[in-house]
Design goal:
753 residues; mainly alpha; Monooxygenase; 6 domains; three-stranded antiparallel β-sheet; 29 helices; binds zinc ion; F-box_dom; F-box-like_dom_sf
Length: 753
C-alpha cells in the first residue's frame, strides 16, 4: 500500500475523527474554553469517544498548545484566507519561515498543493528555519523528508496499514503501526534467538513514542523487524562455509553497525525529548486536575453536599479522567453531565461517615455506661458480690440501658440525664433478675432438677437441655441444687490448660463468677454446660467420704478437706515420683481432664487418705499461690475495686485502715474470683512411707517415713540402736478406703463427720 493510498483510506475511514480534531484545533485558536469544553462534552457522549481518544497525539497537542500560548493574542474575528492559495511562492516562503514546525505540518494537510510545496527539497530552508526557532524539537534525520519527520512526530496516531487508531510513531522504522499490524512485521526480543550476542548490534530496535493521555509511556511493544532478523541469521550461516564471503560480510557488518549506531543515537535523542515534553505535559495536567477538582468540590458543596463527604468520596476513575482533561471552568452543560456521575460516590461516603460516627457514639455511650456500672458496683454493692455481677456486654443488653445506648440523636449520655438516672435506678433489680435467671438456667441443667429425668440433662454435647429452649416442665428448678457438691459445670471456651480455671466450675460459687468469661459472649451457645464426668467424679468422692451425693454440699466437702489419690493413675503413669494427693476439687478437674484417657479413667476411682497420711502430705504442700494473685480486696470498703492487691496487701489494709488486729478471710478481706486463677501444686503421696516415729515429741506435725529412713532417724535423733515396733515406731495405714472396695467395706467406718 502506497503512502497516498494509506492517506486516502485514512481520510475516508477516520474522517469524522479528523474533523473533530481539526475543529478542536480551530476552537483552541479562538481561545474559547467554554466552547471547547462543550465540544468535549459532545465527544464524551458519543461512541466515537474511544476512536477519537485513540488517534489523538497528546504530545503534539501539548506542543501545539504551548506554542499558541506563547504567541501574542490577536483579535481577528474573521478573515478570508482564500487569497493565500494564489500568493506567489516566494511570499509564501517568507511567511512560512516564521512558523512553528507543527504549523507547517498542519498547512501541509490543508491541500495537495501545500503538501507538495512542503514536501519538495526546495522547502528545506523553511523547515530549517522553523526548527531553529524551536531548538528543543529533534531535527529531521537524513534518511526521510522533513514532512515525513513532522508527520511522524506530530501526526495523528493512525495506523499506516489498517487506518485504525492507537498507532504510536516508531522512531527507528519511521512508521506508525497499530499494535495488531506491528505484530505482523515485528517480533519481541524473547522470540529471537541468535547464535552470538554480538548480532544484537546488527539489528535495529524499535523505539515508539507511545504516550498515554496521562503523560506516561507504554513501552510494551514488539522490538525487532522480522525480516531483518531473519536475514542476519542467514548471512551468519554463510560465513561458516565461505571464508571470502566472511570478510565481505565483516566489512558489511561494520558499516551496518555504524549506521545503526547513528540511527540509534538520533532515536534516543528524540525519545528523550519526548520524555521531557511529556514531563511538562504531566505537570500541567496535574495542576489542571487540582484546579478542576477544586472547582468540582466547590460546586458540589454549593449544591448542598458536605465538604468532608466530597473529599472522601471515591469517584469513578473514568469520571476523574474527564475532569482531568477539562480545560476550562465548569459550564452548566458539562456540570449537568458530570454531577449525576459524582453523586453516588458522595452518597456512599456520607453513609460511611454517618455509620462510623454512629459506631463511635455507641462506643462512647457504652464507655459511659461502663463507668456508671463500675461506680455503682464500687459504691453500692458489697465486695463479695463483685464477682457475681454480669459482664458489661450483658448489662448493655438490659432493656433500659440498651434503649439509652441506641437512642436517636447524636448526644452523649450524661449523669444528669433523666433517662440515665432512671436506668441506673432499675439496674440493681435488673442485675438481680439476671442472676436469678442464670441460676435457674444452671440448676435446670442438673440431674434431678426436672421430673423428665437426669439422662436428659447430660448435655455436654449440647442440645438436650439448652438454656435457650423453654423448660419442658413448668416447675421452677430447685435452686438449692446449685449448692450440691455434684453440681459441676464447665466452660467449653476455657478448656486449654492455660485458662483452665473455667474447666471445672463446681456449684454456684464456681459457675456464677465464670459467667463473665469472654468466651461466652459469642461462642458455646453463650452459656456454661453441665459436666457429666465432673458430676460422676464428685459423686464418687462424696460417697467415698460416706455421704449422700444427693445432699452433700460444696461447703461440706470443702470443710471436710480430705486428700485423695486417683485409682486410675499408677505411680509410674502419674510421674514426678508418684501419685499426687489431691483435694476433692482437684480430683474432679483431674477426672474431667482425663476424658481422653478412657483406658484408665473410664469411671472415677478414688482412694481417701487417712488422717496421718493427709497430715504428712499437708506438711509438704506448698502454699496455695493464689494468695499472691492480685485479686484480693478489703471486705469493708471498695478501695481495692479498681486495683485489687495480693492477700497480704488486703490483710495489711484491714489492719491499718480498719484497725482490725487479726483480719479474718472472707469476713474482713476476700478473694475476688476471676476467670483466671494460679493453680496450686499438689504434694506427692509417698505410698511406701508409712512408718511413724513414736519417740518424736507431739508437735502437731506428722511425719511419715519409709522403714529405710526410720532406722537412721531413730539412731541419730533418739539414739535408739535397736528399734522396737510399738515402742519406738509403728506402721500406720495410709489409705483409709477406696471406691474400688466392696460397698460393705466402704460403709464399715460409717460417715466421717
Ligand atoms: Zn494497523
Ligand atoms: Zn471460660
Ligand atoms: Zn488419674
Ligand atoms: Zn478497707
Ligand atoms: Zn522421731
Amino acid at each position: 500500500m502506497t503512502h497516498d493510498e494509506t492517506e486516502k483510506r485514512v481520510g475516508e475511514q477516520e474522517l469524522a475523527a479528523f474533523q473533530l480534531h481539526e475543529e478542536l484545533d480551530e476552537r483552541r485558536d479562538r481561545n474559547d474554553g467554554e466552547l471547547e469544553s462543550e465540544f468535549n462534552l459532545n465527544l464524551y457522549g458519543t461512541s466515537s469517544k474511544l476512536t477519537f481518544r485513540l488517534v489523538i497525539n497528546h504530545l503534539a497537542m501539548w506542543i501545539y498548545g504551548q506554542w499558541r500560548r506563547s504567541l501574542p493574542k490577536t483579535r481577528v474575528s474573521h478573515c478570508d484566507l482564500r487569497m493565500i492559495c494564489t500568493m506567489p511562492l516566494d511570499i509564501l516562503y517568507e511567511i512560512f519561515e516564521h512558523l512553528h514546525p507543527i504549523d507547517l505540518y498542519h498547512i501541509s494537510r490543508t491541500n495537495r498543493s501545500f503538501q507538495d510545496i512542503l514536501r519538495s527539497p526546495s522547502s528545506s530552508s523553511i523547515w530549517r528555519a522553523a526548527y531553529e526557532k524551536e531548538d528543543e524539537i529533534p531535527r529531521c534525520p537524513e534518511d526521510i523528508s522533513e514532512l515525513e519527520w513532522a508527520d511522524l512526530l506530530f501526526g495523528k496516531r493512525i495506523c499506516q496499514q489498517c487506518g485504525n487508531g492507537g498507532a504510536p510513531p516508531n522512531l527507528t522504522f519511521r512508521h506508525r503501526l497499530c499494535r495488531k499490524c506491528a505484530r505482523l512485521c515485528l517480533v519481541k526480543q524473547r522470540d529471537l534467538v541468535f547464535p552470538s550476542s554480538s548480532i544484537w548490534s546488527l539489528v535495529r530496535r524499535s523505539q515508539v513514542i507511545n504516550m498515554c493521555p496521562d503523560g506516561t509511556f507504554d513501552d510494551d511493544w514488539p522490538l525487532y523487524l522480522k525480516d531483518e532478523s531473519k536475514r542476519i541469521d542467514l548471512r551468519l550461516s554463510l560465513t561458516v562455509d565461505f571464508a571470502d564471503i566472511k570478510k565481505v560480510v565483516e566489512e558489511h557488518n561494520k558499516k551496518r553497525n555504524l549506521d545503526i549506531d547513528s540511527i540509534r543515537s538520533h532515536v534516543l535523542k528524540t525519545f528523550r525529548w519526548a520524555q521531557r515534553t511529556a514531563q511538562a505535559y504531566q505537570t500541567q495536567r496535574e495542576v489542571r486536575y487540582e484546579r478542576n477538582m477544586r472547582r468540582v468540590h466547590a460546586r458540589l458543596v454549593r449544591s448542598g453536599h458536605t465538604l468532608i463527604d466530597v473529599q472522601k468520596a471515591q469517584f469513578d476513575e473514568d469520571v476523574l479522567d474527564e475532569i482531568k482533561d477539562l480545560k476550562s471552568s465548569l459550564p452548566t452543560r458539562i456540570w449537568d453531565y458530570l454531577k449525576p456521575q459524582l453523586e453516588p460516590a458522595i452518597h456512599l461516603a456520607r453513609l460511611t461517615r454517618l455509620e462510623k460516627a454512629r459506631k463511635q457514639l455507641i462506643r462512647a455511650r457504652i464507655s459511659f455506661i461502663k463507668d456508671q456500672y463500675n461506680q455503682y458496683k464500687k459504691d453500692e454493692t458489697h465486695p463479695s458480690t463483685w464477682s457475681y455481677h454480669p459482664p458489661l456486654y450483658t448489662v448493655c443488653e438490659f432493656d433500659m440501658l440498651r434503649r439509652l445506648i441506641e437512642r436517636e440523636g447524636d448526644e452523649l449520655l450524661s449523669a444528669d440525664d433523666e433517662g440515665v438516672k432512671d436506668a441506673m435506678r432499675t439496674l440493681p433489680g435488673a442485675v438481680e433478675e439476671w442472676t436469678r435467671e442464670k441460676m435457674r438456667q444452671l440448676a435446670g441443667l442438673l440431674p434431678g432438677s426436672r421430673r423428665v429425668g437426669a439422662d436428659a440433662c447430660d448435655d455436654l454435647t449440647g442440645d438436650a437441655m439448652s438454656i435457650d429452649s423453654p423448660p419442658r416442665e413448668p416447675d421452677e428448678p430447685d435452686l438449692h441444687l446449685l449448692n450440691l457438691a455434684t453440681s459441676v459445670f464447665t466452660c467449653l471456651g476455657s478448656t486449654i490448660s492455660s485458662i483452665r480455671a473455667g474447666r471445672c466450675l463446681i456449684g454456684w460459687d464456681g459457675a456464677g463468677p465464670h459467667l463473665r468469661c469472654g468466651a461466652l459472649q459469642t461462642h458455646w451457645d453463650k452459656r456454661l454446660h453441665f459436666s457429666r464426668r465432673g458430676y460422676e467424679a464428685a459423686g464418687a468422692l462424696v460417697e467415698l467420704v460416706g455421704w449422700d451425693k444427693g445432699t452433700a454440699t460444696v461447703g461440706e466437702m470443702d470443710g471436710f478437706d480430705g486428700r485423695f489419690v486417683c485409682g486410675g493413675c499408677t505411680s509410674a503413669s502419674a510421674g514426678e515420683g508418684g501419685r499426687k494427693a489431691l483435694t476433692w476439687r482437684e480430683c474432679v478437674l483431674h477426672y474431667m481432664e482425663k476424658e481422653s484417657d478412657l483406658a484408665r479413667h473410664s469411671r472415677p476411682s478414688w482412694s481417701l487418705l487417712t488422717d496421718e497420711a493427709k497430715a504428712d502430705v499437708v506438711r509438704r504442700e506448698e502454699f496455695d499461690p493464689y494468695i499472691k494473685d492480685k485479686s484480693w480486696t478489703c471486705a469493708h470498703c471498695s478501695v481495692h475495686y479498681l486495683a485489687p492487691v495480693d492477700r497480704k496487701g488486703a490483710i495489711d489494709h484491714c489492719k491499718s485502715a480498719h484497725e482490725i488486729r487479726r483480719p479474718i478471710e472472707n469476713l474482713d478481706y476476700l478473694y475476688v474470683i476471676t476467670t483466671e486463677r494460679t493453680p496450686r501444686r499438689p504434694a506427692v503421696f509417698r505410698e511406701i512411707a508409712d512408718c511413724l516415729c513414736l519417740r518424736c515429741p507431739e508437735t502437731g506435725v506428722t511425719r511419715l517415713r519409709t522403714l529405710g529412713a526410720l532406722v537412721p532417724h531413730l539412731r541419730d535423733a533418739h539414739q535408739v540402736e535397736a528399734p522396737l515396733v510399738c515402742r519406738d515406731w509403728v506402721q500406720v495405714r495410709t489409705i483409709l478406703r477406696s471406691t474400688m472396695d466392696l460397698p460393705q467395706l466402704q460403709r464399715a467406718e460409717g460417715p466421717l463427720r
